[in-house]
Design brief:
By secondary structure, the chain is an alpha+beta fold. It has a single domain, classed as Pseudouridine synthase. Helices cover 15% and strands 28% of the residues. The chain is built from four helices and eleven strands. The longest helix has 9 residues, at 86-94. The radius of gyration is 17 Å and the shape is globular. The relative contact order is 0.24.
Length: 191
């Protein structure tokens, strides 16, 4: 079987897996969107996170993109409660300790305006008295709920989390629930 590489825009409230046998209540999975057999996600996004997932049947590429030793970046747009100050952003850049683990340094910047994203369903909670801000955060590791734990640790809890890039692959051109095959030019750097 030839290698397959798919980019998928995972919507909010969808599991990053094809089955959900543990829940008594039916939850949406990748199977509700992708009917290509024998492809598997490279890494995961939490059910309450959105954005880019790469799926492949190539185990070597899956390993290289998932294993932190290869240091492939993952970039997120993160809506946080309140407006982070420069000290909080610097802490995220240097790495912080969460759950007895020291994160690697990250690239972090405060976005000057809200990114152009489709509305989330359901929308995040809105409070007139509490402003929000968006940051762009790039990591070369991916621990469970790491971004959420990092922003909370510096005092700015995550409200919405969207992965917009994995290495050189970007979310642009996809809407929530859509997927497409990688173009040859996108595939070459992976191989």
């Amino acid at each position: 079987m030839p290698d397959r590489f798919l980019l998928f825009y995972k919507p909010y409230d969808v599991l990053s897996q094809f089955t959900d046998e543990k829940s008594e209540v039916r939850r949406n999975t990748l199977k509700d969107y992708i009917s290509i057999p024998d492809v598997y996600p490279v890494g995961r996004l939490d059910r309450d996170s959105e954005g880019l997932i790469l799926l492949t049947n190539n185990g070597r590429i899956q390993h290289q993109l998932s294993d932190p030793k290869f240091q492939h970046s993952r970039t997120y747009w993160v809506q946080v409660e309140r407006i982070p100050d420069s000290a909080a952003l610097q802490q995220l850049r240097q790495g912080i300790t969460i759950q007895n683990y020291r994160t690697r340094p990250a690239q972090v910047k405060l976005l000057s305006q809200e990114p152009d994203l489709p509305p989330r369903e359901p929308p995040i909670r809105f409070r007139k008295s509490v402003p929000t801000a968006w940051i762009e955060l790039s990591l070369t590791e991916g621990k469970n709920r790491q971004v959420r734990r990092m922003t909370a640790a510096v005092g700015f809890p995550t409200l919405r989390l969207v992965r917009v890039a994995i290495a050189h692959l970007h979310l642009a051109g996809l809407k929530p629930g859509e997927w497409r095959e990688l173009e040859p030019a996108e595939l070459r750097p992976l191989l």
